[in-house]
Specification:
The structure is a single chain. This protein has 40 residues and is an all-alpha fold.
Length: 40
């Protein structure tokens, strides 16, 4: 099941003109940064 908040954020990003690839890239970098900050 998709979290309603995530769905709204993704819809807003698409409304602003971001592509699915840009959204995926942003999320991937955010997860990577979060993991790095926890281990570093």
């Amino acid at each position: 099941m998709v979290d309603q908040e995530w769905l709204e954020l993704i819809m807003e990003a698409k409304h602003l003109g971001l592509t699915v690839e840009e959204i995926k890239d942003f999320l991937s970098k955010s997860i990577e940064n979060e993991q790095t900050s926890k281990t570093g």
